[in-house]
Amino acid sequence: MKLGIVGLPNIGKSTLFNALTQAKAEAANYAFSTVTPNTGVVTVPDARLDKLAAMYKPKKKTPAAIEFVDIAGLVKGSSRGEGLGNKFLAYIREVDALVHVLRCFEDDNVLHVSGRIDPVSDAETVNLELILADMETVQRRGERAAKMIKSGEKRYAEEAETASILLGHLEGEQPARTCPLTEAQRAIAREWFLLTARPTLYAVNIGEDMLDIPENELPGVAALKSLAAKEGAQVFVIAARLEEEIARLEPEEKAEFLNDLGIRRSGLERLVEASYSLLGLISFLTAGPEEVRAWTIRSGTKAPQAAGKIHSDLERGFIRAEIVPYETLIEKGSMAACKELGLVRSEGREYVMKDGDVTLIRFNV
Protein backbone atom coordinates (compact mmCIF):
# COMPACT_ATOMS: atom_id res chain seq x y z
CA MET A 1 0.00 0.00 0.00
CA LYS A 2 1.40 3.37 -1.06
CA LEU A 3 0.83 6.90 0.21
CA GLY A 4 1.89 9.77 -2.01
CA ILE A 5 3.32 12.91 -0.37
CA VAL A 6 2.06 15.83 -2.49
CA GLY A 7 1.82 19.62 -2.36
CA LEU A 8 3.28 22.80 -3.80
CA PRO A 9 7.07 23.16 -4.15
CA ASN A 10 9.10 24.32 -1.12
CA ILE A 11 6.61 23.39 1.57
CA GLY A 12 8.53 20.54 3.23
CA LYS A 13 7.51 17.38 1.38
CA SER A 14 11.03 15.98 1.07
CA THR A 15 11.86 17.01 4.63
CA LEU A 16 8.83 15.08 5.87
CA PHE A 17 9.75 12.13 3.65
CA ASN A 18 13.29 12.14 5.06
CA ALA A 19 11.94 12.22 8.58
CA LEU A 20 9.61 9.30 7.85
CA THR A 21 12.10 7.11 6.02
CA GLN A 22 15.51 8.54 7.00
CA ALA A 23 16.23 8.19 3.26
CA LYS A 24 18.02 11.54 2.95
CA ALA A 25 16.15 12.57 -0.19
CA GLU A 26 17.16 15.96 -1.59
CA ALA A 27 15.41 18.85 0.16
CA ALA A 28 16.45 22.03 -1.65
CA ASN A 29 15.29 25.65 -1.74
CA TYR A 30 14.05 25.63 -5.32
CA ALA A 31 11.02 24.30 -7.16
CA PHE A 32 11.12 20.76 -8.55
CA SER A 33 14.17 19.66 -6.56
CA THR A 34 12.40 16.27 -6.53
CA VAL A 35 12.18 15.03 -10.12
CA THR A 36 11.99 11.25 -9.84
CA PRO A 37 9.75 10.20 -6.93
CA ASN A 38 11.60 8.98 -3.85
CA THR A 39 10.14 5.89 -2.21
CA GLY A 40 10.64 4.40 1.23
CA VAL A 41 9.07 1.70 3.38
CA VAL A 42 8.08 2.78 6.90
CA THR A 43 7.24 0.46 9.78
CA VAL A 44 4.03 1.11 11.68
CA PRO A 45 4.62 1.73 15.41
CA ASP A 46 2.85 -0.95 17.44
CA ALA A 47 3.51 -1.28 21.16
CA ARG A 48 1.54 -4.54 21.16
CA LEU A 49 4.42 -6.30 19.41
CA ASP A 50 6.83 -5.32 22.17
CA LYS A 51 4.58 -6.83 24.83
CA LEU A 52 4.03 -10.00 22.82
CA ALA A 53 7.79 -10.25 22.25
CA ALA A 54 8.35 -9.99 26.00
CA MET A 55 5.82 -12.80 26.47
CA TYR A 56 7.08 -15.18 23.74
CA LYS A 57 10.75 -14.14 23.45
CA PRO A 58 10.74 -14.85 19.69
CA LYS A 59 13.74 -15.00 17.35
CA LYS A 60 12.16 -12.28 15.22
CA LYS A 61 9.75 -9.36 15.60
CA THR A 62 8.13 -7.99 12.42
CA PRO A 63 5.91 -4.89 12.44
CA ALA A 64 3.47 -3.89 9.72
CA ALA A 65 4.80 -1.54 7.05
CA ILE A 66 3.54 0.95 4.47
CA GLU A 67 5.26 2.71 1.58
CA PHE A 68 5.61 6.47 1.17
CA VAL A 69 6.31 8.15 -2.17
CA ASP A 70 7.71 11.69 -2.30
CA ILE A 71 6.19 13.24 -5.44
CA ALA A 72 7.44 16.47 -7.02
CA GLY A 73 5.64 19.73 -6.29
CA LEU A 74 2.50 20.58 -8.22
CA VAL A 75 1.88 24.15 -9.37
CA LYS A 76 -0.99 26.11 -10.83
CA GLY A 77 -1.48 24.80 -14.35
CA SER A 78 -0.13 21.30 -13.61
CA SER A 79 -3.23 19.75 -15.18
CA ARG A 80 -2.24 21.48 -18.43
CA GLY A 81 1.39 20.37 -18.14
CA GLU A 82 2.82 23.43 -16.34
CA GLY A 83 5.92 22.83 -14.26
CA LEU A 84 6.39 19.07 -14.41
CA GLY A 85 2.65 18.53 -14.13
CA ASN A 86 1.47 15.73 -16.38
CA LYS A 87 4.36 13.48 -15.48
CA PHE A 88 3.74 13.80 -11.78
CA LEU A 89 -0.03 13.56 -12.02
CA ALA A 90 0.69 10.12 -13.47
CA TYR A 91 2.75 9.26 -10.37
CA ILE A 92 -0.19 10.21 -8.15
CA ARG A 93 -2.39 7.69 -9.98
CA GLU A 94 -0.10 4.94 -8.69
CA VAL A 95 -0.69 5.59 -4.97
CA ASP A 96 -3.59 4.54 -2.74
CA ALA A 97 -3.93 7.68 -0.62
CA LEU A 98 -2.44 11.16 -0.32
CA VAL A 99 -0.58 13.04 2.40
CA HIS A 100 -1.06 16.62 1.21
CA VAL A 101 1.60 18.78 2.85
CA LEU A 102 0.79 22.45 3.47
CA ARG A 103 3.20 25.12 4.65
CA CYS A 104 2.41 27.06 7.80
CA PHE A 105 5.90 28.28 8.73
CA GLU A 106 7.66 31.54 7.89
CA ASP A 107 11.25 31.38 6.64
CA ASP A 108 12.88 34.12 4.57
CA ASN A 109 15.45 31.59 3.39
CA VAL A 110 12.85 29.23 1.90
CA LEU A 111 10.87 30.77 -0.93
CA HIS A 112 7.13 30.19 -1.23
CA VAL A 113 5.89 29.89 -4.81
CA SER A 114 3.00 32.30 -4.21
CA GLY A 115 4.99 34.65 -1.97
CA ARG A 116 2.72 34.27 1.06
CA ILE A 117 1.79 31.71 3.72
CA ASP A 118 -1.81 30.55 3.27
CA PRO A 119 -2.40 26.80 3.73
CA VAL A 120 -6.05 26.99 2.64
CA SER A 121 -5.17 28.77 -0.61
CA ASP A 122 -2.35 26.29 -1.22
CA ALA A 123 -4.72 23.36 -0.65
CA GLU A 124 -7.25 24.84 -3.06
CA THR A 125 -4.57 25.39 -5.72
CA VAL A 126 -3.42 21.78 -5.68
CA ASN A 127 -6.93 20.37 -5.33
CA LEU A 128 -8.14 22.37 -8.33
CA GLU A 129 -5.35 20.96 -10.49
CA LEU A 130 -6.27 17.42 -9.44
CA ILE A 131 -9.95 18.14 -10.10
CA LEU A 132 -9.19 19.55 -13.57
CA ALA A 133 -7.16 16.46 -14.41
CA ASP A 134 -10.03 14.25 -13.23
CA MET A 135 -12.53 16.23 -15.28
CA GLU A 136 -10.52 15.49 -18.40
CA THR A 137 -10.41 11.77 -17.53
CA VAL A 138 -14.14 11.57 -16.77
CA GLN A 139 -15.13 13.52 -19.87
CA ARG A 140 -13.05 11.24 -22.07
CA ARG A 141 -14.54 8.13 -20.46
CA GLY A 142 -18.06 9.51 -20.75
CA GLU A 143 -17.69 10.37 -24.43
CA ARG A 144 -16.32 6.91 -25.18
CA ALA A 145 -19.18 5.22 -23.29
CA ALA A 146 -21.78 7.37 -25.08
CA LYS A 147 -20.46 6.24 -28.46
CA MET A 148 -20.64 2.59 -27.39
CA ILE A 149 -24.22 2.69 -26.02
CA LYS A 150 -25.57 1.69 -29.43
CA SER A 151 -23.78 -1.66 -29.05
CA GLY A 152 -26.56 -2.57 -26.63
CA GLU A 153 -24.27 -3.51 -23.75
CA LYS A 154 -25.75 -2.27 -20.49
CA ARG A 155 -22.39 -1.34 -18.98
CA TYR A 156 -21.82 1.49 -21.44
CA ALA A 157 -25.05 3.21 -20.41
CA GLU A 158 -24.00 2.79 -16.77
CA GLU A 159 -20.56 4.24 -17.52
CA ALA A 160 -22.05 7.21 -19.36
CA GLU A 161 -24.40 7.91 -16.43
CA THR A 162 -21.57 7.62 -13.90
CA ALA A 163 -19.43 9.98 -15.95
CA SER A 164 -22.26 12.52 -16.16
CA ILE A 165 -22.79 12.50 -12.38
CA LEU A 166 -19.08 12.75 -11.64
CA LEU A 167 -18.47 15.50 -14.18
CA GLY A 168 -21.19 17.66 -12.67
CA HIS A 169 -19.72 17.11 -9.21
CA LEU A 170 -16.17 17.93 -10.31
CA GLU A 171 -17.34 21.05 -12.15
CA GLY A 172 -18.52 22.29 -8.75
CA GLU A 173 -14.85 22.00 -7.67
CA GLN A 174 -15.63 19.08 -5.39
CA PRO A 175 -13.36 16.00 -5.17
CA ALA A 176 -14.55 12.69 -6.58
CA ARG A 177 -14.38 11.04 -3.15
CA THR A 178 -17.38 13.11 -1.97
CA CYS A 179 -19.55 12.40 -5.01
CA PRO A 180 -22.79 10.55 -4.12
CA LEU A 181 -22.60 7.38 -6.21
CA THR A 182 -24.17 3.95 -5.91
CA GLU A 183 -21.90 0.97 -5.17
CA ALA A 184 -22.11 -0.07 -8.83
CA GLN A 185 -21.13 3.43 -9.95
CA ARG A 186 -18.25 3.52 -7.46
CA ALA A 187 -16.98 0.24 -8.91
CA ILE A 188 -16.99 1.84 -12.37
CA ALA A 189 -15.24 4.99 -11.12
CA ARG A 190 -12.52 2.96 -9.39
CA GLU A 191 -11.41 1.70 -12.79
CA TRP A 192 -10.72 5.30 -13.83
CA PHE A 193 -8.09 5.88 -11.10
CA LEU A 194 -9.30 9.39 -10.35
CA LEU A 195 -6.84 11.54 -8.43
CA THR A 196 -9.41 13.16 -6.15
CA ALA A 197 -10.99 9.81 -5.26
CA ARG A 198 -8.04 8.99 -3.04
CA PRO A 199 -8.39 9.35 0.75
CA THR A 200 -6.46 12.45 1.84
CA LEU A 201 -4.71 13.63 4.98
CA TYR A 202 -3.65 17.28 5.15
CA ALA A 203 -0.28 17.55 6.94
CA VAL A 204 0.26 21.13 8.13
CA ASN A 205 4.01 21.75 8.35
CA ILE A 206 4.87 24.18 11.15
CA GLY A 207 8.12 25.58 12.52
CA GLU A 208 9.64 24.49 15.83
CA ASP A 209 8.85 27.94 17.22
CA MET A 210 5.13 27.25 16.68
CA LEU A 211 4.85 24.10 18.80
CA ASP A 212 3.25 25.90 21.76
CA ILE A 213 0.53 27.53 19.64
CA PRO A 214 -2.89 25.79 19.89
CA GLU A 215 -3.77 24.13 16.57
CA ASN A 216 -6.79 26.27 15.79
CA GLU A 217 -4.74 29.43 16.37
CA LEU A 218 -2.15 28.47 13.75
CA PRO A 219 -2.52 30.55 10.56
CA GLY A 220 -5.28 29.08 8.42
CA VAL A 221 -5.62 25.79 10.31
CA ALA A 222 -9.18 26.36 11.58
CA ALA A 223 -10.30 27.23 8.05
CA LEU A 224 -8.43 24.21 6.70
CA LYS A 225 -10.22 21.92 9.15
CA SER A 226 -13.52 23.32 7.90
CA LEU A 227 -12.48 22.62 4.29
CA ALA A 228 -11.29 19.12 5.19
CA ALA A 229 -14.54 18.28 6.99
CA LYS A 230 -16.53 19.09 3.85
CA GLU A 231 -14.47 16.77 1.69
CA GLY A 232 -14.00 13.91 4.13
CA ALA A 233 -10.30 14.55 4.77
CA GLN A 234 -8.25 14.75 7.98
CA VAL A 235 -5.87 17.45 9.24
CA PHE A 236 -2.60 16.66 11.01
CA VAL A 237 -0.12 19.24 12.36
CA ILE A 238 3.58 18.35 12.32
CA ALA A 239 6.95 20.13 12.54
CA ALA A 240 8.74 18.27 9.73
CA ARG A 241 12.20 19.80 10.25
CA LEU A 242 12.16 19.01 13.97
CA GLU A 243 10.86 15.49 13.29
CA GLU A 244 13.69 14.94 10.82
CA GLU A 245 16.18 15.84 13.56
CA ILE A 246 14.42 13.58 16.09
CA ALA A 247 14.43 10.67 13.64
CA ARG A 248 18.24 10.80 13.45
CA LEU A 249 18.69 10.31 17.20
CA GLU A 250 19.51 7.02 18.87
CA PRO A 251 16.53 5.48 20.75
CA GLU A 252 17.71 6.61 24.20
CA GLU A 253 18.52 10.13 22.98
CA LYS A 254 15.18 10.28 21.22
CA ALA A 255 13.26 9.30 24.36
CA GLU A 256 15.14 11.88 26.41
CA PHE A 257 14.57 14.61 23.80
CA LEU A 258 10.84 13.91 23.61
CA ASN A 259 10.64 13.88 27.40
CA ASP A 260 12.31 17.31 27.52
CA LEU A 261 9.67 18.58 25.08
CA GLY A 262 6.92 17.06 27.20
CA ILE A 263 5.88 14.75 24.34
CA ARG A 264 5.17 11.04 24.86
CA ARG A 265 5.30 10.03 21.20
CA SER A 266 6.82 11.69 18.16
CA GLY A 267 4.66 13.36 15.55
CA LEU A 268 6.03 10.90 12.99
CA GLU A 269 4.72 7.90 14.90
CA ARG A 270 1.29 9.48 15.09
CA LEU A 271 1.41 10.47 11.42
CA VAL A 272 2.30 6.93 10.33
CA GLU A 273 -0.57 5.54 12.38
CA ALA A 274 -2.95 8.12 10.90
CA SER A 275 -1.72 7.23 7.40
CA TYR A 276 -2.24 3.51 8.08
CA SER A 277 -5.78 4.23 9.24
CA LEU A 278 -6.37 6.49 6.22
CA LEU A 279 -5.79 3.52 3.95
CA GLY A 280 -8.49 1.57 5.80
CA LEU A 281 -5.94 -0.88 7.17
CA ILE A 282 -5.82 -2.89 10.38
CA SER A 283 -3.37 -5.45 11.78
CA PHE A 284 -3.96 -8.93 13.09
CA LEU A 285 -1.18 -10.54 15.08
CA THR A 286 0.57 -13.89 15.20
CA ALA A 287 2.83 -14.88 18.07
CA GLY A 288 5.16 -17.74 18.83
CA PRO A 289 8.78 -18.61 19.65
CA GLU A 290 9.88 -18.14 16.03
CA GLU A 291 8.25 -14.80 15.31
CA VAL A 292 5.87 -12.15 16.61
CA ARG A 293 4.33 -10.32 13.68
CA ALA A 294 1.69 -7.80 12.65
CA TRP A 295 -0.07 -8.62 9.38
CA THR A 296 -1.67 -5.85 7.33
CA ILE A 297 -5.20 -6.36 5.99
CA ARG A 298 -8.03 -4.10 4.92
CA SER A 299 -10.76 -3.47 7.45
CA GLY A 300 -13.60 -5.90 6.68
CA THR A 301 -11.32 -8.78 5.59
CA LYS A 302 -12.64 -12.25 6.44
CA ALA A 303 -10.57 -14.92 8.17
CA PRO A 304 -9.64 -17.06 5.10
CA GLN A 305 -8.36 -14.03 3.18
CA ALA A 306 -6.41 -12.88 6.26
CA ALA A 307 -4.85 -16.35 6.42
CA GLY A 308 -3.86 -15.90 2.77
CA LYS A 309 -1.72 -12.93 3.77
CA ILE A 310 0.46 -15.37 5.72
CA HIS A 311 0.59 -17.99 2.96
CA SER A 312 -1.68 -18.93 0.07
CA ASP A 313 -1.86 -22.52 1.36
CA LEU A 314 -3.49 -21.29 4.57
CA GLU A 315 -6.29 -19.66 2.62
CA ARG A 316 -6.71 -22.59 0.25
CA GLY A 317 -6.89 -25.16 3.06
CA PHE A 318 -8.52 -22.92 5.68
CA ILE A 319 -10.46 -24.82 8.37
CA ARG A 320 -10.81 -22.30 11.18
CA ALA A 321 -9.06 -19.47 12.99
CA GLU A 322 -8.36 -19.67 16.71
CA ILE A 323 -8.55 -16.10 17.99
CA VAL A 324 -8.08 -14.25 21.25
CA PRO A 325 -8.15 -10.43 21.46
CA TYR A 326 -4.74 -8.93 22.25
CA GLU A 327 -6.02 -7.19 25.39
CA THR A 328 -7.38 -10.49 26.74
CA LEU A 329 -4.12 -12.32 26.08
CA ILE A 330 -2.10 -9.65 27.90
CA GLU A 331 -4.55 -9.56 30.81
CA LYS A 332 -4.47 -13.35 31.33
CA GLY A 333 -0.73 -13.66 30.72
CA SER A 334 -0.57 -16.56 28.29
CA MET A 335 -2.41 -18.38 25.53
CA ALA A 336 -2.63 -21.46 27.77
CA ALA A 337 -4.45 -19.44 30.44
CA CYS A 338 -6.85 -18.05 27.84
CA LYS A 339 -7.62 -21.58 26.62
CA GLU A 340 -8.24 -22.84 30.15
CA LEU A 341 -10.72 -20.02 30.68
CA GLY A 342 -12.46 -20.65 27.37
CA LEU A 343 -11.45 -17.27 25.98
CA VAL A 344 -9.95 -18.55 22.72
CA ARG A 345 -12.66 -18.46 20.03
CA SER A 346 -12.91 -20.78 17.06
CA GLU A 347 -14.02 -18.73 14.05
CA GLY A 348 -15.04 -19.92 10.59
CA ARG A 349 -14.98 -18.60 7.04
CA GLU A 350 -17.42 -15.74 7.60
CA TYR A 351 -15.60 -14.21 10.53
CA VAL A 352 -14.52 -10.60 9.91
CA MET A 353 -11.11 -9.96 11.40
CA LYS A 354 -10.65 -7.23 14.02
CA ASP A 355 -7.61 -5.10 14.73
CA GLY A 356 -5.45 -6.80 17.34
CA ASP A 357 -6.81 -10.33 16.89
CA VAL A 358 -4.04 -12.71 18.01
CA THR A 359 -4.58 -15.54 15.53
CA LEU A 360 -3.66 -19.16 14.91
CA ILE A 361 -4.83 -20.59 11.57
CA ARG A 362 -5.88 -24.23 11.35
CA PHE A 363 -5.68 -25.57 7.78
CA ASN A 364 -5.34 -28.72 5.73
CA VAL A 365 -3.96 -28.91 2.19
List the helices and strands and how they pair.
Blueprint: E1 2-6, H1 13-21, E2 38-43, H2 47-56, E3 60-62, E4 65-70, H3 85-92, E5 97-103, H4 119-148, H5 154-171, H6 183-190, E6 200-205, H7 221-230, E7 234-238, H8 240-247, H9 251-261, H10 267-278, E8 281-287, E9 291-298, H11 303-310, H12 312-316, E10 318-325, H13 326-332, H14 335-340, E11 345-347, E12 357-363
Parallel strand pairs: 1-4, 1-5, 3-9, 5-6, 6-7
Antiparallel strand pairs: 2-4, 8-9, 10-11, 10-12
Helix pairs in contact: 1-8, 4-5, 5-6
Describe the protein in words:
The chain contains 14 helices and 12 strands. Helix 1 runs parallel beside helix 8, helix 4 packs antiparallel against helix 5 and helix 5 packs across helix 6. The two termini are 29 Å apart. About 3% of the residues have low confidence.
